[in-house]
Amino acid sequence: MSRAAIFFAAGFEEIEALTVVDVLRRGGITADMVSVTGEGEVTGSHGITVKMDMLFDEVDFGKTDIIVLPGGMPGTTNLEAYQPLMEKVDEFYEQGKYIAAICAAPSIFGHKGILKGKKACSNPGFESHLEGADVCREKAVVDGHVVTSRGMGTAIPFALAILEQFAGAEAAEQMKGKLVYTA
Q1: Most buried residue, 11, 56, 79, 172, by most Cβ within 10 Å?
Q2: Do 169 and 154 form a contact (C-beta atoms < 8 A)?
Q3: What's domain 3-172's superfamily in CATH?
Q4: CB-based contact 146:133 (threshold 8 Å)
C-alpha cells in the first residue's frame, strides 16, 4: 500500500490539509498527519486544532511515497523554516519520489529551484515565487513527480491528482463520483 505524509505546521490551511488526508484514506492510501511543531496537536490558520498521527521524528521516510505540504499562512512559512523537512523535500525530489504542495506552499518548491522548467501553479498571490516555472492556472498540475495546486477551492482536484498517481486514473475517477465532485 502507498503511504503519504502530510506535514502540519502552526497556521496550516485546514481544508487543504484535511481534504488530502480524507481523500487519500478513502482511496486506500495510508495518509499520515505529521507535526513539525514537536507537539501532538497543531492549530490551523482558522483556529481549528487537529490531533496528529505522529511527530516528524517518527516518520519512516523509507516507507513514505509522497511528501505533501498544505498551504496557509503562516503555515507555509513555518514549514519552510523547518530545516529537517526541507532536507527531506530535497531528498525526495532528487530521488524522483513525489512531492506535492498547494496554495502558498508551492512557493517553497520555487525557492528551492525545483520548479525550473516545470508546469506549476499556486495561489495567485504566490505565483511570483514559482521561480523558473511555466506558471499555469489549472486546478492541479502534475509535472513529473511534482504536484501543485492553487488553494482551498482546488483541494479536491489536488487530492484526486495525488490519488491518481498511486491508485490510477480509474480509482481517482471513481472517487470523484463518490465525492459527488462535479466541477
Answers
A1: 79
A2: no
A3: Class I glutamine amidotransferase (GATase) domain (3.40.50.880)
A4: no
**108-160 residue pLDDT tens:** 999 999 999 999 999 999 999 999 999 999 999 999 999 999 999 999 999 99
Listed by start position, the domains of the chain span 3-172
Which pTM was predicted?
0.97
Cα–Cα distances in Å, from 15 out to 6, 38, 135, 165? 13, 22, 23, 21
Pseudo-torsion of CA 57, 58, 64, 68, nearest 10°? -60
Is-catalytic flag, 121?
Answer: no
Q: Are 71 and 13 in contact (CB under 8 A)?
A: yes
Pick the closest to residue 24 from 158, 159, 174 (CA basis).
159
Is 183's pLDDT higher than 80? no
